[in-house]
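Below is a filled-in request sheet from our internal design queue. Each sheet records the structural input a requester submitted and the sequence that came back. We keep these sheets so that new team members can see what a complete request looks like end to end.

REQUESTER: design group, bay 2
PRIORITY: normal
MODE: inverse folding
CHAIN LENGTH: 386
BACKBONE (tokenized):
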């Protein structure tokens, strides 16, 4: 089933209220609506890309295995090189970028058709999810809510914080949290897994509060928030056993402490890159009180086509076309670039589509920072008037 059907969209176009379009475009220097309502050609867009919905397993396997191989080889090269040597620094950079790309495949796992790519899912967990303490169940079922029309941008969306309506310091805090995430994840699986089975009352707390890769710290995972990973308890046990084994070998002097230090440094940089990419993925303007339509979700999202070689380093596996992904969430990552080019060149009116395009990471971050600063300044003036 394609997402046009999943979204239950039956109209030829979607009309956006004038106020919504003004809000979406006033800070972009893009367009001003000429009529009381602007129209997004969703049906036409779908017809242009309907042949691009089938994932190619060969591309998935080749890309993921190559990224993982390069990443882990570079990791061990960095581990065996003298500290702070050019060899170590170079290997570290390669390890971060390659393993970051491999890790981001968890996003694809969340969108692939239910019950498919089972061996790929197992391989991803073995080579990436378990070693980094992010088994796929921590994203499966959670991320899918982010695309639901009644959830996206609301208080129930764990992957959405209205940064543009808050103080800029909150974005800084979000990025700095990347330094704490790796040890927190390690403690979650190393300590809370056995404790939660010894003390059953902890199970519910751990599931709701410590089992989801989200950006909203107040998010509570629903009991039934599982889509593919019904074996999540086995994944949890595997992560515990891996963490316990590595830590035990370090305590027994079988492995050097450098392994854990390098793991922390690589994981932290991966999370920093992903936090910056996440901030550049949406406009984050919806305060959260009410849901947004499918077209409004798209216009609240961001495309950064950028350079074909440079941009994928920080927005890998198709995520530089994040707005297009929100239009067609089941489209495989390897077709998003082609879909974007078709929509730019072949839509009868591509004006609204182009409002989501940013020239680069800096441009996207600069815009959301500017809006956040303006909001903070407006709030400060309002307080002074009182």
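RETURNED SEQUENCE:
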């Amino acid at each position: 089933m394609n997402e046009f059907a999943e979204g239950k969209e039956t109209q030829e176009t979607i009309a956006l209220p004038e106020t919504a379009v003004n809000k979406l475009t006033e800070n972009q220097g893009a367009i001003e609506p000429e009529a009381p309502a602007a129209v997004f050609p969703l049906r036409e867009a779908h017809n242009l890309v309907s042949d691009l919905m089938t994932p190619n397993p060969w591309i998935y396997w080749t890309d993921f295995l190559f990224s993982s191989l390069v990443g882990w080889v570079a990791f061990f090269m960095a581990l065996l090189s003298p500290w702070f040597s050019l060899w170590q620094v170079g290997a570290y950079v390669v390890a971060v970028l390659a393993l970051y790309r491999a890790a981001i495949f968890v996003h694809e796992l969340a969108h692939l058709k239910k019950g498919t790519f089972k061996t790929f899912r197992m391989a991803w967990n073995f080579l990436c999810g378990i070693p980094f303490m992010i088994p796929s169940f921590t994203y499966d079922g959670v991320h899918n809510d982010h695309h639901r029309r009644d959830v996206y941008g609301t208080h129930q969306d764990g992957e959405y914080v209205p940064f543009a309506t808050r103080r800029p310091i909150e974005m800084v805090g979000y990025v700095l949290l990347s330094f704490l995430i790796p040890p927190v994840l390690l403690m979650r699986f190393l300590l809370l897994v056995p404790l939660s089975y010894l003390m059953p009352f902890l199970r519910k707390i751990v599931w709701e509060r410590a089992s989801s890769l989200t950006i909203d710290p107040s998010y509570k995972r629903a009991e039934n928030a599982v889509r593919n990973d019904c074996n999540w308890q086995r994944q949890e046990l595997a992560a515990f056993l891996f963490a316990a084994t590595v830590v035990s070998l370090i305590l027994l002097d079988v492995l050097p402490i450098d392994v854990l230090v390098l793991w922390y440094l690589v994981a932290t940089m991966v999370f920093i890159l992903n936090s910056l990419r996440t901030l550049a993925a949406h406009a984050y303007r919806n305060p959260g009180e009410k849901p947004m339509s499918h077209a409004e979700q798209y216009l609240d999202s961001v495309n950064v086509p950028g350079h074909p070689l440079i941009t994928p380093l920080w927005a890998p596996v198709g995520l530089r076309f994040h707005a297009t992904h929100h239009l067609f969430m089941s489209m495989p990552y390897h077709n998003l670039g082609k879909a974007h080019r078709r929509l730019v060149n072949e839509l009868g009116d591509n004006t609204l589509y182009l409002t989501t395009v940013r020239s680069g990471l800096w441009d996207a971050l600069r815009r959301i920072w500017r809006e956040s600063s303006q909001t903070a300044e407006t709030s400060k003036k309002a307080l002074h008037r009182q």
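SHEET NOTES:
- The CA atoms of residues 185 and 273 lie 17 Å apart.
- The first strand starts at residue 14 and ends at 17.
FILED BY: M.R.
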